[in-house]
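The step that takes the researchers longest sounds almost clerical: writing a folded protein down as plain text. The outcome of that step, for a single protein, is printed below.
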Amino acid sequence: MLTATGVSAVCHFLDVGSALKLFPFDWDVKQQCFKRAGRRHRFYFKLHKLINLFMNVLAAGRLMQATRRAYFPLVLRILNTVWLMAYTLTTLCFVQFETKEGEILQFVNCLLRYVRRTSIRKNYSEKPVSKKSTTELYEQKKLSNFIFFGMLMLVGKPFVHILLVDESPYAPHFVSSFFLPCEGFKNSYFPFWHKVPFMAAEYYLTTVFFFSWSLNWTIIFLGMSWIVTELKTTVQQYRSIECIATLMNKAFFLYLSTFPTLLFAIVSILMFGVIRIWHYAPGSNLMFAVCGIRCSFEAVTPLAVAGEVNDKNKEVVQTWGQRIVATKRMVKKEAIAYQKSFHAVRCTAGSLYTFENSIVLCCLNNCIQLTLDLFLTFK
């Protein structure tokens, strides 16, 4: 499923997140799997959660307070709104970690065992690789490249975000607005060393919510890729594939039901910011473009794979029905009864909706429409 380097990247990511106490799980280095965290680990995890919840409430309160003022710059409106949505999604991720801890632990460990078992090592022999192995290797490299790009964005994004504290320390959602004289949102001069502690605080806060997002994205993306691979190769084990999909849907229900709305809303607002105020200060507004690329990447890729899961499931069911028609009468009745006992293999957000390829188009259309509406609202 992944190359050896891709498997190592995923394991290192889980190890670092666990070491920073950003996940409620301990990483077992020898067995390469998650285990239930101890009491001290849970204390630090809850501390991260409380800090994020405080910043979420702060961003919401500051936004409501600032909108009542006569002067509220457009760039600060964009930043405050985007941060509010980011903190909200992170809060939901923390709630999901606590309420679905057992399901997440079980699914992640099953996924890691499958990924390690199916990874193809490099072929150092002179024997030619079969056509099937070449195809599998291509799919593994493609999935690994997606993982590498996601990890690259995870490492680089906090550095881009701390530049905003240097450029706009008076933004109402930053911690610096509590300690620096920021009356009237005036762009006053502050020595750089005065802003260093607040840049460090922003680096910590962005690291927290980027790690929580990346865990959900990585596991869901690889989980749905696992389902697609199984539907292509081992259709006879349809029941086990259905159990995999059901466990993933239950474990990540809260994230699956909210991430398309929040991430695409963030993308549309950032797209509006790039077009509307990019020419004023291209350097300081670099975050809009970079963050928009990351959020759109994390929003589109799981939806695209989920649509592929739904399409592949329809093909399997259709092929299965054609085989039943060609069987004998008694065997046909048993086969029909057996088929009716299965539910469809789909990626769903509870009873809200089922992810299909049309969902991606609808989300992109709504994203563009929201951006155009913002242009009409803020001229």
